[in-house]
Amino acid sequence: MKPNVAAAKAALPHLDLDTSEAAIRAKSRDFFWYSPVLKARLDHVMADFVVSPRSEAEVIEVLRTCYAHDVPVTTRGAGTGNYGQAMPLAGGCVMHLRHMTGVKEIGPGRVICEPGILLKDLDTATKAHSGQELRMFSSTWATATIGGFIAGGSGGVGSCTWGSLRDLGNIIRLRVVTMEAEPRVLDFRGEELPRVSHAYGTNGIITEIEMPLAPAYDWVEMFVACDDFMDAVRFAEDLANQDGILMKLGTVFEAPIAKDYFQRVAPHVEPDTNLVGLMIAPHSMEGFLTFLGRRSEARLIYRNDEDDWPRSPGPVFEYGWNHTTLRALKVDPSITYLQVRYGFPEHKALIEKMQTALSPEVLQHLEVLREGGRVIFAGLSLVKFTTEERLDEIVRMHEDAGAMIFNPHRYTLEEGGRQTVDDRQLRFKREADPKGLLNPGKMIAWDDPDWSYDRMYAYPKLQAAE
Amino acid sequence: MKPNVAAAKAALPHLDLDTSEAAIRAKSRDFFWYSPVLKARLDHVMADFVVSPRSEAEVIEVLRTCYAHDVPVTTRGAGTGNYGQAMPLAGGCVMHLRHMTGVKEIGPGRVICEPGILLKDLDTATKAHSGQELRMFSSTWATATIGGFIAGGSGGVGSCTWGSLRDLGNIIRLRVVTMEAEPRVLDFRGEELPRVSHAYGTNGIITEIEMPLAPAYDWVEMFVACDDFMDAVRFAEDLANQDGILMKLGTVFEAPIAKDYFQRVAPHVEPDTNLVGLMIAPHSMEGFLTFLGRRSEARLIYRNDEDDWPRSPGPVFEYGWNHTTLRALKVDPSITYLQVRYGFPEHKALIEKMQTALSPEVLQHLEVLREGGRVIFAGLSLVKFTTEERLDEIVRMHEDAGAMIFNPHRYTLEEGGRQTVDDRQLRFKREADPKGLLNPGKMIAWDDPDWSYDRMYAYPKLQAAE
């Protein structure tokens, strides 16, 4: 079962193949370097070649060929993920879906498209067609693909209203190609969707996507300032609980995140300013301003439709979700982050507890999220990194307090998730990837079913660093 | 201050005046007869004349003229309210807004219109213009006006997602004409809106309305059957808590409501069938069917897009909200109803307690409602009426258990609400209706500030029955 890379490449000359070392290196990486832990382990990872299929037929050809020659295939979109999920740990083929950008059908409340289209381009198409847009998108909207978002993401801008990608109704249908001697093409709906959504392409390649749409509005983007951190948290939560105010984003930044890391915001805030970033539908602005008028603790310091700042801060959502970490990292390279779920009804108490215990080593960055019909918070806390041991200790402190951690310093599905095997994904991998060639090293349950999760998993076949 | 009706009529001959006794009698009534208590007290109520202004200018003329001659003015739309709110308790003028049906402007997420347009016609206009519709409407959508809904209603179909009319953002702006020597025209937004929304026209006349819109979809209307009542309640609640499934209606009918009162549904259900009525967005149907597949206790017995019933049941929302009462009344004239709020987080326990204590004398009819971001239930319970004393006792049982009652057997704002003076409405009435001529007898705080609410209020100037 030794991969025959040369034979695979030789069989695919009519496809868009990339074999220059610089290109291969670039396309073998994602934003894993947000994590010093992953940076230390994956920096050298590199594929043998990159192929960019132009159609589902070419995807099938790549998978059939690589199957025949035992070559691993790691599929990627724009590579904006943060967990090394698009990195070819065992080398082989990186399949880049950048040519598969077709929008096949748009109707009321839905769109059918190919996986490689950028979120931004998809929104442009649906907005032009009928004033519609995606319910949710990652903060990498301008550069990330819809396929990557579904295969490697969990939610984002819009999740304050619509919940997460895994929630019923937030993906309608996925078409998936298997990696077998003769690849099959399967249409998944309903209970079948979790087999391949957020599976990092470990058990099938998504070639067509049907997503629900929401109306597109010229969202009013705003920053609201509060002197007290928990006032800012309550402001965001209470606003999200206003059923008549339509909202696309609610982000809370503990001080001094805004002053220290948001260059264009900094001149307008103080070091002790806690900031709330918002996107509100224009026809909800009367309601929002009424709500704001009741909160003397909150000051509206910026709205994009009445901007008097000499330098525009750009889209407010590009301060939220994982862009917060990116902005902090650019100023202070020692910053990394955690992903926390503060569940209902203890969410505010948990946040306050963690903030009291860990600030400023850990600064709270919270995203309003709906889960099971309730407003809660996801934390993408900024962490001043010192050692891996201290990072693990901080993780444990959260878990001991009852705040669930989705560890972004791990490259496996299980460790980045709930630390348990997803049986649906594993069972489908057995069926769809019998040789275990799809994105190897990312599903512990496949490689080491008895793994105990007592330490960080290390994929045995991970390429050796030179 | 004796009304000079003859002088007022004589001053308005160029307007659309209705002076035939039959017409005046018909237009002096609403659906107050749902309540045997109101039926006994208001059946004889009759205006002296009816005027139907064609424009805001004519509304002003009517108000100015009636003010000059001390003639009471009770304003109405279609008269589909249930609390006698559009009935002229002291006679005088009924101002009917049926000619004021203009749609002035439609934009993304909003519409500006006149108050007399039917909800149905407004939805037709916004749907044709840009695929939009009202966020919420009463079950009398086909016959009721938007102005009547705002002045006399509180929520309805759509409130499972958007909350109630009083929630911030669910009304954008109201233009209001006062009743003074020289009527003023005022634009109300934000904190000013509660002055006149749900005020029965007691302190100003709404002449222009700006409402938020939601996308219009071809909602899939369904009935789901459960053998167990609380299973049906949980089904509706859990579905409404699915953030990714877009819903417009969730109604629960305790058995045997469906069998006994829903003629076209009866052949398809048993006496012990508890029914759930639903409207789900078409692009949420995959998610809905997945949810349904997890609930073995629930059977989908009807969907309007795959209808195999020999006789169509018609719109499912015309079984919900106050249409439930109407259908029951047609079969059993002794039926009346209550309006109950089962608040979070005790809502299900309260419902079960009331059902256990009072069924079948009181049958549970529940509407999924969002309040403060949480899914709760409004009860429009069907009551087998015996005596007023027993009805009062049933009301007390609910209140003692902690379920708030909005008594639909009362014609005043306070008794139908939270039994307290709404200071905003009272203060605005002092300013806008100094002579107290607008819809007299409906605001206790105006007539009798020291009223103790220990018994049903009886307006002293109520017309005497012949």
TrEMBL record, chains A, B:
PROSITE patterns: FAD_PCMH. Keywords: FAD, Flavoprotein. This is FAD/FMN-containing dehydrogenase. One of its GO terms (molecular function) is D-lactate dehydrogenase (cytochrome) activity. It comes from Silicimonas algicola. It comes from the Bacteria. SUPFAM superfamilies: FAD-binding/transporter-associated domain-like, FAD-linked oxidases, C-terminal domain. GO terms for biological process: lactate catabolic process. The keyword Flavoprotein applies. Residues 42-216 form the FAD-binding PCMH-type domain.
